[in-house]
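Reopening this ticket.

The earlier resolution said the output was attached, but the attachment link was broken on my side. Pasting everything inline this time so it's all in one place.
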Amino acid sequence: MSYSTRVKAELMTVIPEKQHCLRSEIAGILNAGGREDHPKNLDPLLAVLKSRLKDKEFDLESPEILQRPCCKRAYIRGMFLSCGSVSDPEKLYHLELVFTTIERAREFRDLLRLCGIPSKIIQRKGRQVVYLKEGDLISEFFALTQANTSVLEMENIRVLKDVRNTVNRRVNCETANLEKTVSAAMEQKEAIRFLQEKKLLKTLPPPLKALAELRLNYPESSLKELGEMMDPPVSKSGVNHRMRKLLKIAEEEKL
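Inline output:
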């Protein structure tokens, strides 16, 4: 069973208690794609909803259908059941409803906006698609339509994805910093080897000579670690300053 099918299965168990909400959900189902074009799997739900109506005749376009907040929720739920779908949030945040006319799509977009959920419209293969692409908005949509189990599942998935993304960013950052450190250390070592081959190390001031020897002996150590090995210890910025001097000396000798 797909994720979208699971969400709809949950929504189909939400049966309004109030007559006005029953009418609103029926209107949402039937208005979504045309009176005779709703999915046949909704026939059992429609039968249950209609069986609980006291007044069997009502106007599906009546403004009264959308007067109350609870009726707006029922209407939106009916619309989604009839022409909506949602992707598995483990892979992609995407919820959409497909309408045959731009008027109906705009009506639904405006209704969602009134309920605090901004959405967008695109055209696809001659149809009008109202869609959401943010996890928090899809979670709000589930809450609005009373898909409470789906809300909890969505929030759990969002938390796990956020944690994974945070960990990946940190790992990538640390990897980049490590690569930068290794590259710099190799450059420093090569420069010092050059000075060594030219027999220039012994001519360096004692602080620079000591640092050069430490870099040769500890090629994988950071500048901070090299500073801690010096006698007396030198700060990272101090080591960096001395290392730049060594690199400059080697560069000038190569000219």
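Reporter confirms the inline version is readable. The chain is about 60% helix and 5% strand. The chain has a mean pLDDT of 89.
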